[in-house]
Design goal:
CATH class: Alpha Beta
Keywords: Hydrolase, Metal-binding
Pfam families: A_deaminase (PF00962)
GO molecular function: adenine deaminase activity; metal ion binding
Helix content: 40-55%
CATH architecture: Alpha-Beta Barrel
Structural class: alpha/beta
Protein name: Adenosine deaminase domain-containing protein
Strand content: 5-15%
Distance between the termini: 27 Å
Bound molecules: adenine, zinc ion
Order of helices and strands: HEHHHHHEHHEEHEHEHEHEHHEHHH
CATH topology: TIM Barrel
Cofactor: Zn(2+)
Length: 348
């Protein structure tokens, strides 16, 4: 789908992107050589071809196809080339440079500390790499506030340990890299309330709280109910990442509207596995009911290289939104974001 000049030129805000999901095949190839890591591909074009992933991370629904990794397996396999602070800096700068090219003025990338510490990478290498990129990207006109993610398919205690390690890089008394915590990875039988202790600790540190409620998960409506009404001592999450399944049940979408919880939607992630005529009317119905939303990329290099501009183009083309609505979605993202007021004013 070609990106129209209107979408290309629109100043943008991105609130749902996993930094590890922006690792391009070419940077992965370069880092593999830099770090003497053997990839299971002999040529660069074999590596590139492996990015044509069609499966999502729900093996319980799709069965496993021998030789084809699930989505999250591919995502974590990509992480293996990331070893040193410089690698994490290069990953982050590549994304933030691309942001500048796409006119993304402000972004809140997720990062998965546990994906790296469990491979033996020291947490400070990850966090200092991102911190340096956060600072350097300001010169490109791209501001960022990052989001620490708990990996929900790891033991709860492992996430709490990672949070304790990352805390000196938080906003408030820390170095200011991240202003929020999130919840990502495989949601299968891992409801949000399992992580209540982590959310409580983060809130006590003055951080914001968001969480994934992926489209079409097992128990998706129960998970959404927890995220809207139960977590954070009953206050609910401040945002929900994805959350499209709320459209199915009035108590859920009314809960989003009444509590002012915005959704960070990633249209292409759903379009990979949902008919156009089913998906985009569903997004539009949520919007018509007054649910606040913005449009984002999720894991662009693992999702056919569709970045935030391509995701905005999809709803512009397929939801029947006009230019003023598209501008409003960017304003929604500014409202939903966790930048300081002066940055918000500058990007509004
Ligand atoms: N972590 C990175 N990408 C993810 C996705 N698409 N869903 C859940 N967790 C993720
Ligand atoms: Zn995501």
């Amino acid at each position: 789908l070609p990106i129209s000049p209107f979408i290309a030129n629109l100043p943008k805000v991105e609130l749902h992107v996993h930094i590890e999901g922006t690792l391009t095949p070419s940077l992965r190839w370069e880092l593999a050589h830099r770090n003497n890591i053997k990839l299971p591909y002999t040529t660069f074009s074999d590596l590139k071809a492996s990015y044509a992933i069609t499966l999502n991370h729900r093996p319980e629904l799709h069965g496993r196809q021998p030789g084809i990794p699930t989505f999250l397996e591919a995502y974590f396999a990509g992480c293996e080339v990331l070893q040193t602070e410089t690698d994490f800096y290069d990953l982050a700068m590549a994304y933030l440079t691309r942001c500048a090219e796409m006119k993304v003025r402000y972004t809140e990338p997720f990062f998965d500390i546990q994906a790296h510490t469990r491979r033996g990478v020291p947490a400070p290498a990850v966090l200092n790499g991102y911190l340096r990129a956060q600072r350097d990207a300001i010169k490109l006109g791209v501001h960022s506030r990052w989001i620490f993610c708990f990996l929900r398919d790891e033991p709860v205690q492992s996430g709490l340990d990672a949070y304790a390690q990352a805390r000196p890089w938080a906003a408030g008394n820390g170095k200011g890299l991240f202003h929020a915590v999130g919840l990502a990875s495989n949601a299968y039988e891992r409801p949000p309330m399992l992580f209540e202790e982590g959310f409580r600790l983060a809130r006590a540190d003055g951080l914001h709280v968001t969480m994934h409620c992926d489209f079409g998960q097992k128990d998706t409506h129960e998970h959404m109910g927890e995220a809207i009404f139960q977590v954070c001592g009953g206050l609910g999450a401040e945002r929900i990442d994805h959350g499209l399944d709320a459209e199915d049940e009035e108590v859920l979408w009314r809960g989003l509207v009444d509590r002012g919880i915005g959704l960070t939607l990633c249209p292409h992630a759903y379009h990979r596995r949902t008919e156009t005529g089913v998906l985009f009317p569903k997004i539009r119905r949520l919007w018509e009911r007054g649910v606040k939303m913005c449009f984002n990329s999720d894991d662009p290099t693992l999702m056919h290289d569709v970045w935030v501009d391509g995701n905005m183009q999809k709803v512009y083309s397929f939801c029947g939104f006009g230019k003023s609505e598209m501008v409003q979605f960017v304003r929604n993202a500014v409202d939903m974001c966790w930048a300081e007021e002066d940055i918000k004013r500058a990007i509004y």
